[in-house]
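> call design_seq(struct)
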């Protein structure tokens, strides 16, 4: 044991567990920690808003599959983090958040910048904890990092009163004592696994629906092996997008409100849906009562609370996606009888053929200006390019039009739908994986919520590309006002300000205005080749809709597509 201040104990523990980067903004109640950070060797990235620090930590975590770290002072510093924490919680992303706090002697007295961050974040974290002694800091930190990534990942908050930061005490850096019980996922129940295998082998029209849990378990290769072994087509939730290459013959792409009609029809015709690592949100299933009506539902999830929560299941298995799929593969008969034909795959190909006029041979729906733009971006970007998105039409167009070739290359805000997420998440992803090109697909509305991060990419030399789909609208709200409110636009139309090219240049970042897909492709290709930051402003039609679209409260069969419904 050694004598150390609370701030020293914190920073030394972070060094011990090999934290490489922290995103944050200093302030009075966290300054002792920042003083220790100065000589720690840990990289600190100064953000321009605390919410973005949380999003950067989130993007970092999703790109590298280990906890991202962010830090802020008390009061408005900590409250600005809350949206980012909630976003990570909804999407099961492991971030560890450190907040400064007023001294314990001042708590409850309305001190300057005093906020009960523990009370605020308890509903949106796996654990929120306020340290009350120097001695417990190492164990609190190690507990936070272990808890954030164990089982279903999620955010953790550690609140640090200022007197604990400056106070001293005896600290044991070697004793790893968890402050809360951490329960690892159980091994897959062999009896349930056996039943799942029996159902899969007996099923005539099975579909796998894979979610974000497959990503966190790094189970993409296992998933593909299972699908190929049994010739089962794979649809994904929006958070699961990319767990199978979307050029794979068994890929059905995404389901949901703006999902692929081939995936929807496959699920509607299925007699068994194997759900792996997905929580079956309303945006995934649409009208839940009509989701999988003809099918047996088998749900695998690391979080037992998700199984049967939104949809009654035939079988449920509590396990991580990787362990569950391994167990299923091991339980399959060594030799599977194959008669050389598969009527279900023939049916899937028939469904694809029926929709080909709408979707196209490459699986990308439509031939609109936006679809052509995404095809140009795909030509410009290597397979390992990480794409993040903002929220709104840009996000749903990315779901429909961006074709993922490698796993782990798509990051978006799903459950909370946080405008302003994509650009800071892209910065975090680029810091985590500097060898990969990183591109944020943005809308003008979302980008205006995070454009100050251009200062971060310029000063910290983080070459991220931003492609703005610029319709001078809050596009998704405007689309709903067109469809459901008789085109009565209200509070959605932007003026011509700002000029995004000049804005980028003001921050020291190259800005380009592109009018054709070819111009976009050239600009993005150059930025990737030179590894430089770039903002591309692409003017698009403010009347353009994201289609297909399942209206809220409706089912997959009610999908609205470009040009109307195909012949049945």
């Amino acid at each position: 044991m050694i004598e150390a201040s609370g701030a020293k104990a914190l920073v030394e523990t972070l060094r011990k567990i090999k934290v490489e980067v922290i995103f944050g903004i200093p302030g009075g109640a966290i300054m002792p920690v920042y003083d220790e950070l100065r000589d720690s060797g840990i990289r600190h990235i100064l953000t321009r808003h605390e919410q973005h620090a949380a999003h950067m930590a989130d993007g970092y975590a999703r790109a590298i599959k280990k906890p991202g770290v962010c830090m802020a002072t008390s009061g408005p510093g900590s409250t600005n983090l809350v949206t980012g924490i909630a976003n990570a919680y909804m999407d099961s992303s492991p971030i560890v958040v450190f907040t400064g706090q007023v001294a314990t002697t001042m708590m409850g007295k309305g001190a300057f910048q005093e906020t009960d961050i523990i009370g605020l974040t308890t509903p949106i974290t796996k654990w929120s904890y306020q340290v009350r002694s120097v001695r417990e800091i190492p164990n609190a930190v190690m507990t936070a990092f272990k808890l954030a990534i164990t089982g279903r990942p999620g955010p953790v908050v550690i609140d640090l009163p200022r007197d604990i930061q400056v106070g001293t005490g005896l600290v044991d850096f070697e004793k790893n004592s968890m402050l809360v019980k951490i329960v690892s996922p159980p091994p897959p129940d062999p009896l349930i696994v056996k039943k799942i295998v029996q159902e899969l082998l007996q099923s005539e029209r099975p579909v796998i629906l894979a979610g974000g849990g497959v990503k966190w378990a790094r189970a993409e290769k296992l998933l593909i092996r299972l699908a190929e072994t049994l010739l089962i087509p794979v649809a994904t939730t929006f958070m699961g997008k990319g767990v199978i290459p979307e050029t794979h013959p068994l890929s059905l792409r995404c389901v949901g409100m703006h999902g692929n009609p081939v995936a929807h029809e496959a699920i509607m015709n299925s007699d068994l849906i194997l759900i792996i690592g997905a929580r079956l949100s309303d945006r995934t299933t649409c009208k839940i009562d009509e989701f999988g009506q003809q099918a047996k539902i088998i749900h695998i999830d690391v979080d037992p609370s998700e199984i049967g929560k939104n949809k009654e299941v035939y079988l449920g298995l509590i396990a991580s996606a990787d362990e569950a799929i391994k167990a299923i593969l091991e339980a399959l008969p060594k030799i599977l009888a194959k008669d050389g034909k598969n009527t279900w795959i023939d049916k899937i190909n028939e469904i694809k053929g029926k929709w080909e006029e709408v979707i196209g041979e490459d699986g990308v729906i439509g031939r609109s200006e936006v679809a052509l733009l995404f095809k140009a971006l795909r030509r410009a970007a290597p397979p390992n390019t990480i794409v993040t998105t903002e929220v709104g039409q840009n996000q749903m167009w990315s779901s429909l039009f961006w074709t993922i070739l490698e796993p782990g290359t798509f990051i978006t805000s799903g459950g909370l739908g946080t405008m302003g997420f994509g650009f800071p998440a892209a910065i975090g992803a680029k810091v985590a994986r500097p060898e990969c090109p990183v591109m944020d697909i943005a809308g003008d509305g979302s980008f205006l919520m995070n454009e100050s991060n251009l200062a971060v990419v310029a000063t910290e030399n983080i070459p991220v590309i931003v492609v703005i789909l610029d319709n001078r609208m809050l596009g998704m709200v405007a689309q709903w006002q067109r469809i459901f409110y008789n085109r009565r636009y209200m509070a959605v139309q932007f003026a011509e300000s700002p000029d995004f090219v000049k804005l980028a240049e003001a921050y020291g970042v190259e800005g380009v205005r592109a009018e054709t897909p070819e111009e976009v492709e050239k600009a993005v290709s150059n930025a990737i080749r030179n590894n430089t930051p770039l903002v591309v402003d692409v003017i698009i039609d403010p009347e353009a809709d994201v289609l297909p679209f399942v209206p809220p409260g409706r089912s997959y069969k009610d999908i609205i597509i470009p040009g109307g419904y195909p012949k049945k």
